Each structure stands twice: as structure tokens, then as C-alpha cells.
Amino acid sequence: MEPAPPALVTGGASGIGAAITRAFRAAGHAVTFCDRDGAAGAALARETGAAFIEMDATDDAAIAALFASQGPFGVLVNNVGADQHAFFTETTREDWRHLLGVNLETVFAFTKAALPAMQAARYGRVVNIASEAGRMGSKGGAVYAAAKAGVIGFTRSIARENARYGITANAILPGPIRTPMVARGIAQYGEKLERDMAGFTLMKRIGEPEEVAAAALFLGSRAASFITGEALGVSGGMGCGA
To answer: Which CATH architecture does the domain made up of 7-233 adopt?
Structure first.
């Protein structure tokens, strides 16, 4: 059996990213994860034995330094992201630049850094965490939805360009997931928010980060060798029109 290739998880210190970091470590991958939250990252590194890099994922110099010191990687999970709730007429150019920078431009930058070594090895797995918002739109989240739609289109293009190298690229589209950000929203707005979010799904519940991590682990594995260019909803059926 071939050893599990090294994996890189961006935004890997909490929420979905932390669950992905744990899942890949449990499956035997050497994992490097990066995050701006130094305290949470250090704690997860102690827990899992993964390598932690504290950095701003939008910093090109920091990305180059990470790949120089930790790479190459056989698996890249682009998970880092940010959101803000505001109707489009209330958003600014700065909001647009910030949300596209975190949610879309980081996917470009990390994938650009990872692909040359994957192409040389003729093996690679790129897993991008998008969102059902990118497929369905989002009331109060137009900019976020635009960024995540961009991630889906980018993923499919990377899949087309890199299949000949044995590299797959797939996107995961989470729905409402019980992340720290969602938990803060529920604490602020009450249980009605949780009921409303659950109501968007066929399963009538909010998902758990570990459920997204299970999909990422599979798409990042050798077993998923004939799956590429896909946008997989991990959303309790939101994509079916709940």
C-alpha cells in the first residue's frame, strides 16, 4: 500500500478546517495547516501532531515561504474563507475586495503554488471548500456567493487542465454547518435562526464539520481517482430544492 501523501489544509485551525485536519491526520497523512489564529492553531497542532503555520492566507510572500519550508504536497484542501451578512446595496467595494480576496484569490494562490510539484509527480488532489451559496445564491450574501461560484468554476477548469497529470480537482459545497461562526450567529439571533437554517435542508438539521471533513478525506484519497471536476453538496439536500 502506498503511503498517504502529505496534505496542506488552509484555514485549518477551527470549524470545518480543524475537522479536516483531524481527519487527514487520523488517516495517516502528514498534515500542514495554516491559519491566522495562532492560539487555536497551536492547540490543534499539539492535539494532532500536524505542523502549524501561523500566517495570513492572502499574503503571497507567506504562501511562498510555506511551500519552500513544508512542501511539496500531494493533497491541497483550500478551506480558508470569510463571510459577512449584508444586503448588496449595503456592501462596499472594500467588502467586495476583502471577500473575494479571502474566498477566491487564496484558492488561486495556493493552487498555483501546489500544482507544479503535483504535475511533476503526476499525482495530486485539490479539494476546494466552496458553498451551496455559490450554486444557489444567498440572500444577504451576494459577494460571498459570487466568490464561491468563482471557486466552483475555477475548480472545474483546473480539473480540465490537469487530468492528464493524474491530478483531480473537486469542490465541496457545504450548507449550514455547526461552525463557530454559525454558533455565534445562533447565540446572537436565537434558536429561530437555527430552525430557519435547518429548514433549508431536506434533512431538517444543521450539519457537523466532521461530515464535511469525511467528504474532503474521500475526495483527497487515492480511492477518488475517477472523480474530478465535481461540485459535491454536503448540505442535507439543499441542492435538491428543499
So the answer is: 3-Layer(aba) Sandwich (3.40)
